[in-house]
Request: fold
Amino acid sequence: MTMKMKAGFIGFMDYSADPWEQLEQAAKIGYRGTENGEFVLLRGDLSENKKRLHDIGLECLTVATMSGETLERDGIDSIIESAHKLEVERAVVFHGKVYFTKMNKQATYDDVMCEIEFLQNAAEACKKEGIKLAYHNHDPEFTMSFNGLTVFDMLLAFAPDLWIELDVGWTTYAGLNPVNVLKRIAPRLSAVHFKDFILGPDVQVPLWGSKELYDMPNFCSLGSGELDVHGCLKACHEIGLEYIVVEQDFMHALTPMEALQVDYLVMKESGLLE
Reply:
């Protein structure tokens, strides 16, 4: 039997407040890693911050860029440099072009293929530096198709060196069985994000940097919604993943720390988590 998995998290933090106090709270709950690391470590003295993060029992799990467009704008070398600086072996692209169709921005076949070609080139460059570049999905990758292939399968087929950071919440929201997807793409998994949502009407949230609203699932703590939490945990454990990363784009009823506590306890109850 493989070793038990560790809990990681991304988000849940108020950066207008003391980030270190929140990181310490998360570590006391039982979390061992964070994908927020670069946002904290690069504030002030890097060496001191690395030691401080280590001393409270957390490790930085990845570096990230907001989208394929930001990676292209900043340059592939920028994310490689960040990964080496923070001493991590994983990097993530959080949004592809098709995500922004949720905000009424068109994505054509040519747009998608150009982005996939760029991501493959970026993944190859990262691979040479010992870094796994991954793509984080939302629902459009599964709901949009070109020439009979979903965008998700296009990523798998045409960017063979690109890893996947599968968000099982968005996968469920798109209408797929996340356990089946996890098993199907096991060799390509860099990490897995666990996110739950309540079935029913979407909620409207502000578009980044504006007052315009767009629809999102009604996200909630793990075990309160539609996600097959324990089925996904079992699949991840069988695959041999080291970390499970929880995420919640916005709070439903609990505070961020309450939600982190619930998420950890729900996962811990499976017996598959440290």
Remarks:
- The first helix runs from residue 19 to 29.
- The radius of gyration is 18 Å.
- The first strand starts at residue 6 and ends at 9.
- DSSP finds twelve helices and 13 strands in the chain.
